[in-house]
Amino acid sequence: MTPRSLQRVIPSLAVADGAGVKLRRSLGASQGLRHDPFLLLDEFFSDDPNDYLAGFPAHPHRGFETVTYMLDGHMQHQDHLGNTGDLGPGDVQWMTAAGGIIHSEMPQQTNGRLRGFQLWINLPAAEKMQPPAYRDLPARDLPMVGLLGGGEARVIAGVLTQGEQTTAGPIQGHSTAPLYLDLHLPAGSVFEASISAGHNAFVYVYDGDANVGAEQTPLPLRAACLLSDGDQVRVGAGDHGARLLLLAAKPLHEPVVQYGPFVMNTREQIEQAISDYQNGTLAQPG
Ligand code: CO
Of the residues 45, 72, 261, 268, which has the fewest C-beta atoms closer than 10 A? Predict the structure, then answer.
């Protein structure tokens, strides 16, 4: 077993997006801050309703997938195909924008609280212009599994492998083979799992304190902590316990040209996306 260790820290920055929504962006905070195939990670959290009322009115995406995961509050969404939904605590929306989708995302507080994440995962060149698709995954469809070293994990994508025990999440069979876990670790517990060698991985601690690797390197809060290669990950929780995301996926090793919500392989494809959006042909029937 080769344990992964902390390789690079990408701190989150306070940014505003949509109609002035305040959030913390780590991956994707500037061009080049990616971890192939991961393009962007936003954490939104607030107890001030004015931070979110305006939401994310109608906007396009092309060339990648967006994964929205709510912890507190709600996210109402609507797209050009007429799909609507309302994500509550523990729910996930896995949207494959591919060739194009136009949607709105409107966060709503519950009891004055709102918290969640949006992750962008790149698509291989061959899948960037496929028809769009998405799945709303209610919390009850996401396995919550007890961890051998204490605590529990919500398995959103991929397979959690602890020794001989495996737990599969609902998202399987994607080209990038994403693993998406939400780990809840009590104070002093140690999480250990197998992870595919060669896949890019990172952790994001959003609550408490934790360390990673055989060296037990402390992990900063609210930062994308990129891990070295290896086939095992070990995370220890500190005195306050920890809650964190663990993400891994197969890198694409393809050129990335990004312009806002369009992520393609060439500048010409970006110009095409902009002109398709302006002409009203970006959003295709699903
Ligand atoms: Co969007």
Answer: 268
List, for residues 204-215, the tens digit of each pLDDT value.
999 999 999 999
State the distance from the centre of ligand 1 to the C-alpha of 25, rounded, in angstroms.
15
Output the six-digit token pair for 259. 């312009």
Give the integer Cα–Cα distance in Å for 217 and 237. 11
Domain count, the chain: 1
284 lies in some domain: no
In a domain, 55, yes or no: yes
Residue ranges making up the domain that contains 120:
6-278
How many angstroms does the Cα of residue 54 sit away from the middle of ligand 1?
A: 14
The answer to whether residue 1 sits within a structural domain is no
Task: Tokens for 275, please give them.
Answer: 């002109």
Distance 59 CA to ligand 1 centre (A): 6
- Tens digit of each residue's pLDDT (9 = 90 or more) over 177-201: 999 999 999 999 999 999 999 999 9
Integer CA distances (angstroms), 214 to 1, 196, 203, in order = 11, 18, 15
DSSP 8-state symbol, 126: G
